[in-house]
Amino acid sequence: MSRRLETGGLFIDRNAPMGFTFDGKDRGGFGGDTLASALLACGQLVMGRSFKYHRQRGPVSCGAEEPNALVGLGEGGLFEPNARATITPLTEGLRAISQNRWPSLAFDIGAVNAKLSKFLPAGFYYKTFLWPRAFWKHVYEPAIRRSAGLGKPPSQPDADRYEQVNTAADVLIAGGGVAGLAAAMEAGRNGARVILMEQGPRWGGRALIDAPLTGETIDGQPAADWIEMAVDTLETMPNVTMRLHTQVSGVFDHGFALAEERCADAGPAPVRARLWRIRARRIVTAQGAIERPLAFAGNDVPGVMLAGAVRDYAVGYGVAVGERVVVVTAGDDGYRTAIALVEAGLAVPALLDVRRGATGPLVERAQALGIRIEEGRGIAHVSGGQSVTGVSICAQDGPGEVIEEIACDAVAMSGGWSPAVHLWSQAGGKLTWDEGAAMFRPDHARPPTGADGSGFVLPAGGSDGAASTEDALRSGAEAGRLAAEGGVPADLAPPQAAPMPQVWVMPRDAGLALREKMWLDFQNDVKVSDVELAAREGYRSVEHAKRYTTLGMATDQGKLSNIGGLATLGHALGEAIPQVGTTTFRPPWTPIILGSIAGSATGAQFQPVRRTPMQDWHDANGADYEPVGQWRRPYSYPREGEDREAAAQRETRAVREAVGLLDASTLGKIVVKGPDAGRFMDMIYTNMMSNLAVGRCRYGLICNDSGFLMDDGVVARLSEDTWLCHTTTGGAEHIHAHMEEWLQTEWWDWQVYTANLTEQFAQVVVAGPQARKLLDRLGGMDVSREAMPFMSWAEGSLHGFDARVFRISFSGEVSYEVSVRASEGAELWQALLEEGEDLGVTPYGTEAMHILRAEKGYVMIGEESDGTITPQDLNLGWAVSKKKADFIGKRGLTRSHLADPERPRLVGLRSLDGTVIEAGAQVVGPGVTPTGQNATEGRVTSSYHSPTFGHGIAMALIRRGPERLGETVEVTRIGGGRQKAVLVDPVLYDAKGDRLNG
Amino acid sequence: MLILTCPYCGVAADETELSPGGEAHLHRAGPGSEDASVEAYLYHRSNPKGVHFERWRHAYGCGKWFHSARDTATNDVFGTYPAQVTETPQNILEAIAQRRPGWERPQ
């Protein structure tokens, strides 16, 4: 059983006891512990269950690569699932729960899956549940969903706060071990602006634990002293920024990097995490290396751990993972662990070295300590269920005949180390296979390249394959110096890697019975036999085999399983490892919190809200808003006892019977000005705009060059060289951009300026039979029928406001749009309300505006049009010039498909029973489609209840619609069924225009 | 995230400041054009692995359209230049020739 040692523990403070709970039980640890080290110290070895077979799992690592020890932390709005216990700092009062088990961690119903493992091979999702089809939906899928999965998602919004920071650096260094510190010192001394980031809670990396075990020094000093000196030196450099608890999670194009700082990991902090967005000239990757597991039968039993982790727990945290630890190793590293354990007073019954004749200081030291070394040996299988009870040893070169059984309660395994090449690879750096060292390492000749084509990532230390502290120091310093100078990795000599035999399966000739118990991916339960099955079934590509078996798809993203998996695949396919290649390395390096990606952009800060000058009045008068782009427009203004729809009906009647006010400030207002402005307007609009008289208005359409309708609106000619273009609310920005694009990229020699003045003016629609009377009361301008006929505009002083008044209508009533400076919009609105009180003046929202325009048969961009609709489709061919030699969309409109008479065209639709047809309903056509479904011949684009007519009204695009007035068709209903409707003229209200012109 | 230098205002702009505009140096097929050339103008775009000419707008900066010559595989940027041209400027072609010897513009 794991326990706390009486003495030792470099990282813990035995004078700082801390209480926490695990699955509701009170536990204790020390300051400096991780959750995993504290649980191990309490004898809690099992920390999770695997994804597929629900096997009990203890931690296999002591770091960010951990696949097993995933827990839920906190409660309510502060709950976080899938936290890795191995890198979760222990804090007072921490509450942790285990995952993927029911009803408890010790007894789990889902573990029956393991007994069924013969029936759950690789790709079982794709094979097993094909028939009967209905069973998939009702039986298999719910069962799988209940039993699979890891942490539960939080049930409440994240109550923590996050922030983001943008910065730039000459040199960003990822990793604060010996190589990273050395790089920072060199780069710092060269005057570069340096950012040094370390994911863990302390500087120095592995050297703190590993160097003393072999008596290695750094620059002649003990490792701890050198690290302290380095940190002190760096802290005096004003050009160096240092951050602990911060992972560089991704490297992207042109030296862009993302890093996540877990501020709260260092103690109470105002923000939980901070996302750094860094633009770096050079990036040094010094993240070290990841130890590889060995594939032997039973390598997933709790108590089987990476050798490096076993000594980290012992030396760093004063924790014994077992009393008797068998070490099995493919290289020198297992010796370090054996030495550390013996020095900590624990028993190492045997050290199994797959090699023969290994020599060197570590071997000599182990021999001197009297450790029993078995050469050429491996583990045939591990005994034990909830924890290790023993191992059977065998010759590595053979099928696994058991030579001896050794009782033990833990196993330390070391299959060598893989450089952490993730950041190098993410941005496009290529790898090379080092056969002697059995590792993929960065190919310095093929780095990620920046804008100037030179490599901008320089690998250092263990990330570049360095095996010794001395080499890490040298390569770090060299990378730091080069980075500061803007050098490239081709000028950087790769460090010496340790020779390593390739041990992918233990024993080498293991039969199927053993290979079925050798785990490659611990979290996803992918075994050697699964990868071999995938190869037999034709999955030759490593990317396909990954997805078929789920190897490497766990939350550790293959940090432990990738190399073993692709070696197994290569062996099964008879291909060499470099031919198999690796799967793609994608950011993040380790998971980052979704909250830190959102930063402060949540709730009200999610995006800016644009407010009109009259918004305060809307707020104070009960406006029920709808979002229109970044604006919030009143949908209607419900009164006591009204819902939003009833309010819209009342507002519509008020416009028809008295006078209404609409806040139209959101409508786009683009000024086009210059000697060539007329010519330009004629290109932008489908109809003629150059011949519009000063003082007059004209409705116009804008198409793209394909011939599809983009926007519509009223254009007013302000002066000889100036036009004012009204656009839809949603169209202001992109129509302005559309104009600029053509002006800058096609007709750049034309003398035209455009300006988007949407927010500079407030605009109010005054519409209804009492509109003229109301404006007369305001006084100052002659708005009579004679002085200001329909489609004219005038400038003047209205009630003391400098105003432009446009006599235009989107309702079919006598209507004026009054435009004043934005700063005076609220006052104008107030004046109109006061002067019109006895006239029945009524503010109306967008829904009444929609009903009014639909009664009149006016189209709405985005309702009747959707990017595939032409002006002719909407019966607006009259607004498409036949005289102009050219305009944007002219040629496009003549394409055969757009000129097809069979196209759906705009028509009115009225249900036979007078009810409101559902907007978006399909108009059922004759016959069936080639796939046997009902054919359709159109769809309903707008539909409302009309208070003016007392029944539902709708607009629809129907094949040859205008030619079929009076015909009855069927339209679909949501949830099934159909209703009958008759095709009618879309212009229902005041077809002659008497009221409009009145 | 790319950095492209706006040739108008000189700002080395992050990609988030820019909006992309697709392939550069297209020729508009207006009224009177053959169907095939209209089709090509509206819909056919090259998608090379390697040197590519593309349009960008400094949308959250000076608002100007410009062109860039970029290697789509490596993100080498050979240069940026104003959009008010009908052909790639000579200095850009020279920069490409220097860094991609033997490169020829596909026909």
Structural commentary:
The complex is a heterodimer of chains A (998) and B (107). Chain A is α+β, with helices and mostly antiparallel strands. Chain A has 6 domains: 157 residues, Roll (Ubiquitin-like (UB roll)); 203 residues, FAD/NAD(P)-binding domain, CATH 3.50.50; 91 residues, 3-Layer(bba) Sandwich (FAD/NAD(P)-binding domain); 145 residues, Gyrase A, domain 2; 92 residues, 2-Layer Sandwich (Alpha-Beta Plaits), CATH 3.30.70.1400; 84 residues, Elongation Factor Tu (Ef-tu), domain 3, CATH 2.40.30. Chain A is 24% helix and 28% strand. In chain A, strands 9, 10, 13, 14, 15, 16 and 30 form a 7-stranded mixed β-sheet that branches. Chain A has a 6-stranded mixed β-sheet with strand order 42-43-44-41-35-45. In chain A, strands 46-49-48-47-50-51 form a 6-stranded antiparallel β-barrel. The longest helix of chain A is centred in the middle third of the chain and has 16 residues. Chain A is elongated, with a radius of gyration of 37 Å. Chain A starts with a strand and ends with a helix. The relative contact order of chain A is 0.07. The mean pLDDT of chain A is 94. Chain B contains 2 helices and 6 strands. Chain B has a 4-stranded antiparallel β-sheet with strand order 3-4-5-6, with helices on one face. Classes of the chains: A alpha+beta (998), B alpha+beta (107). At the A-B interface, helix 22 and helix 26 of A face helix 1 of B. Chain B: This is Heterotetrameric sarcosine oxidase delta subunit. Chain B: One of its GO terms (molecular function) is sarcosine oxidase activity. Chain B: It comes from Pseudoroseicyclus aestuarii.
CATH topology of chain B: Folate-binding fold
Strand content of chain A: 25-35%
Number of domains of chain B: 1
What average pLDDT do the residues of chain B reach?
A: 95
CATH superfamily of chain B: Folate-binding superfamily
Overall outline of chain A: elongated
Major sheet: arrangement of strands of chain B: 3-4-5-6
Main sheet specs of chain B: 4 strands, antiparallel
- Determine the most extensive contact between two protein chains: A-B, 27 and 31 residues
- In total, the number of strands of chain A is 51
The helix/strand class of chain A is alpha+beta
CATH class term of the largest domain in chain A: Alpha Beta
How many separate domains make up the residues of chain A? 6
Give the SSE order of chain B as H and E letters.
Answer: EEEHEEEH
Quaternary structure annotation: heterodimer
